[in-house]
Amino acid sequence: MSSSANLAVELRTRKRSADAAFGWVARGSAAFVLLVLAAIALTMTARSAPVLSAMGLDFFTSTQWSPPEKVYGALPFVFGTLFTASIAIAFAVPVSIGVALFITQVAPPRVRRYMIYAIDLLAAVPSVVFGLWGVLVLSRDFGLGRSFLTAGIILAVMITPIITSLSREVMETTPQADKEAAIALGATRWEMIKATVLPHSTGGLVGAVMLGLGRALGETIAAALVIGSALGQITTNPLAAGNSMPAVIANEWGEAGTLHKSALIALAMTLFVITILVNLIANAIVARAQRRMRGA
């Protein structure tokens, strides 16, 4: 066998070995992620057992939270978390998608480049800075007070760069030929966007929104500074003070006793479950959108 043939065989062998090694690394990484999630779930479940044994289902349905009386009801905090996250999504999604469309479809190259830099810098701002800005500007100067609305607006500002960046990257994957074909058929720019860009990007946009929602659900410091820290408050008035699961955990952990800490860990477990459910719903929506696209 010639030296060139031996070299070819050796290269194929190395390639197969590299592919096999990559496969094992990928499987190991996936298994590690699942192991970490399982460890988190088991740890939080075990640490939540004391308060769940003491309160039962009342922990999830009661509105009273009184550590001195050893009464812990998580419902107001679950409501506050979902309410502020919903306000944030309502503000952030239209702005984020609009900015992403402007960057990818309208803005000239120079403007596009500077806008991308600005959005990336905004995403890197620490959450405590947004929280302090909310306290000093929205709460005081704009008269919103520390409320659900203030927390929702701050969360919207925080998640807008995330949703915008991901939406922009998804929109940029739309085949140029599809857009040019729509324009060639006489479509306006908006008609081209509706016919090609948005349908092609549906799954990615849903994923971007769900990632932003996950950030809004789990944000701690900014929400704790501006939401008002009201206990037992369930109201749909956005100007009322409230509380959220991450905020109450941050505010009360330092002074919590054994059962109190168990209740706070149970709140974290509840937030963990809600986040998983949100991701499952997002995956279902994306899968449905992809099936509809294939059917179309």
Helix-strand topology string: HHEEHHHHHHHHH
* Mean pLDDT over the full residue set: 85
Radius of gyration: 24 Å
| Low-confidence runs | none
Number of strands: 2
Distance between the termini: 55 Å
Name a few traits of the molecule.
mainly alpha; 2 domains; globular; two-stranded antiparallel ribbon; 296 residues; MetI-like fold; 2 strands; 11 helices
Structural account:
By secondary structure, the chain is mainly alpha-helical. It has 2 domains: 3-55; 61-295, MetI-like fold, CATH 1.10.3720.10. The chain is built from 11 helices and 2 strands. It has helices at residues 3-55, 58-61, 75-106, 109-123, 127-141, 148-171, 176-184, 189-218, 221-226, 245-252, 258-295; strands at 65-66, 71-72. Strands 1-2 form a two-stranded antiparallel sheet. Strand 1 (65-66) and strand 2 form a beta hairpin.
Topology overview:
Elements: H1 3-55, H2 58-61, E1 65-66, E2 71-72, H3 75-106, H4 109-123, H5 127-141, H6 148-171, H7 176-184, H8 189-218, H9 221-226, H10 245-252, H11 258-295
Antiparallel strand pairs: 1-2
Helix pairs in contact: 1-11, 3-6, 3-8, 4-6, 5-6, 6-8, 7-8, 8-11, 10-11
Brief account:
The chain is mainly alpha-helical and 296 residues long.
